């Protein structure tokens, strides 16, 4: 009876969590992420776009930096009070973000139309961009939570397709001949992103949202990891502001290169379960490209710098989509609390971005550097990028993979056995063992594959997860059970059968033959 009740509870939980597991939700999530990416791209290139280009470039860069500082302040609040933010997530999306965006656009429109002039322009614009920075965080955090509830087999493809769709949408909005049309276009993307996020949050079961609060609270990221993320942000801010200072044509050319990065991300998403390409591999591939593009900038004219910027932006587009995928898939696979993880990574990124934007502003506009000092500055930035990756890459990629290989030794080539003929008792024995060691939902799915004699490659294909993720789940199961091989796991399931048989014998009964098993 208890088992039946447990099954019913599981089916009810599964039904309540089905909002983000259907194909329709994946399509809506793709559209929402595309709109979010358009807005994020518009924000960083804003000094060259209609939202700020009517003012001096100094004002545009100042507003951009104000929005990043505001976002970081909000991220610090998320780190200190994650539950308070999570409990109010739906209200942050609607009416929260729209309540921030509406006055921000109204204030910007007053400045753009000339209704506000003179010394009042700067404080009004700063107030508008404080609101925009807070609104962007509310939207991006809500999408991080939603993607963390999506099945892993669809997440990578949904994010990659959203990134690919964002490029033509951004070019359409930013390249509109009439500034008012462009502003209306970005406002439409924002409203669509907001409404889609609110709709999916409303459709998500309260039980699943409540369960997320009990997920693992990831420890603080290491100094090496924070340095690597901040360095990527520094280079991104440096390239973005350099392009914005050169004007709208350079921005449009560089932004168009984002579709190349998104295309590579789509290819990886399709091949994900059959590939060993992970975030560490991505960083090893992208760091040389970014470093080379930075080093060539001092020796190029405006056209050449635009080309270097385009290469860097295309690479950043791919890296950003991969990082988003890694973040939300890890949240879903290992039941990690999304608010804190998102806030930690973004805080380091926007801190680096702010520093890079300031460096570019002074190097290319306020105090333009001649070729030799600019080349020295580019060399310093390139060295910092490579050094940060060397520190972080060795810690997070090679060491982690070696540790997983040791912890899952003997699990890659286990003996293949047939499942018992009587499937129900087999499942009952597995359920008993899984309850005893308090395995998570995903670990239970992996456990069942292992108990049937399947190997890590089978788990990877069966559950649509990467090879490293499958090995990590196996390692977690082994650690919880205090074992070091798959054969030990199978033996424990078999012993559960023996224990069940003995419990089912009538009190005082004697076995007919002491050798009977």
Automatic annotation (TrEMBL):
One of its GO terms (biological process) is regulation of DNA-templated transcription. SMART domains: HTH_LUXR. Residues 432-497 form the HTH luxR-type domain. The chain crosses the membrane at residues 21-45, 57-80, 92-115, 121-147, 154-174, 180-201, 221-245, 251-270, 347-367, 373-394. The keyword Transmembrane applies. GO terms for molecular function: DNA binding. It holds the Pfam family GerE. It comes from the Bacteria. This is HTH luxR-type domain-containing protein. It comes from Gordonibacter urolithinfaciens.
């Amino acid at each position: 009876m208890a088992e039946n009740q447990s099954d019913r509870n599981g089916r009810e939980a599964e039904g309540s969590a089905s909002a983000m597991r259907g194909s329709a939700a994946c399509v809506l999530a793709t559209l929402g992420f595309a709109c979010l990416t358009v807005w994020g791209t518009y924000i960083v290139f804003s000094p060259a776009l209609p939202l700020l280009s009517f003012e001096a470039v100094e004002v545009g860069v100042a507003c951009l930096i104000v929005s990043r500082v505001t976002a970081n302040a909000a991220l610090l609040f998320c780190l200190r009070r994650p539950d308070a933010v999570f409990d109010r997530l739906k209200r942050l999306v609607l009416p929260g973000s729209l309540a921030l965006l509406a006055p921000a656009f109204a204030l910007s429109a007053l400045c753009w139309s000339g209704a506000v002039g003179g010394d009042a322009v700067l404080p009004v614009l700063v107030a508008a961009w404080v609101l925009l920075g807070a609104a962007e965080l509310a939207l991006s955090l809500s999408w991080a939570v939603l993607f963390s509830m999506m099945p892993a087999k669809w997440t990578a493809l949904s994010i990659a397709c959203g990134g690919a769709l964002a490029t033509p949408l951004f070019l359409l909005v930013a390249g509109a001949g009439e500034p008012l049309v462009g502003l209306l276009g970005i406002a439409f993307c924002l409203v669509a992103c907001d409404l889609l996020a609110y709709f999916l949050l409303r459709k998500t079961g309260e039980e699943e949202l409540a369960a997320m609060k009990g997920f693992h609270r990831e420890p603080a990221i290491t100094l090496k990891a924070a340095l690597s993320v901040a360095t990527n942000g520094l280079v991104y801010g440096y390239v973005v502001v350099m392009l914005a200072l050169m004007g709208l044509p350079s921005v449009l050319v560089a932004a168009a290169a984002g579709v190349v990065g998104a295309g590579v991300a789509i290819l990886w998403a399709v091949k994900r379960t059959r590939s060993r390409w992970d975030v560490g591999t991505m960083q090893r591939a992208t760091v040389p490209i970014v470093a080379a593009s930075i080093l060539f900038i001092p020796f190029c004219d405006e056209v050449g710098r635009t080309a270097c910027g385009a290469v860097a932006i295309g690479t950043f587009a791919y890296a950003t989509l991969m990082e988003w995928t890694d973040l939300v898939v890890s949240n879903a696979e290992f039941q990690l609390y999304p608010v804190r993880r998102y806030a930690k990574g973004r805080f380091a990124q926007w801190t680096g971005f702010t520093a890079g934007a300031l460096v570019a502003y002074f190097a290319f506009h306020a105090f333009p550097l001649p070729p030799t000092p600019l080349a020295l500055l580019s060399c310093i930035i390139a060295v910092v990028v490579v050094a940060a990756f060397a520190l972080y890459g060795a810690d997070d990629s090679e060491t982690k993979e070696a540790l997983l290989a040791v912890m899952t030794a003997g699990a890659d080539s286990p003996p293949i056995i047939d499942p018992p003929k009587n499937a129900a008792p087999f499942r009952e024995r597995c359920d008993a063992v899984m309850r005893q060691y308090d395995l998570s939902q995903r670990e239970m799915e992996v456990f069942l594959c292992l108990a049937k004699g399947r190997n890590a490659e089978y788990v990877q294909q069966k559950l649509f997860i990467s090879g490293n993720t499958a090995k990590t789940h196996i390692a977690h199961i082994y650690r919880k059970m205090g074992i070091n091989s798959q054969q030990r796991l199978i033996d424990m399931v078999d012993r559960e059968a023996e224990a069940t048989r003995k419990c089912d014998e009538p009190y005082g009964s004697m076995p007919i033959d002491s050798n009977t098993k």
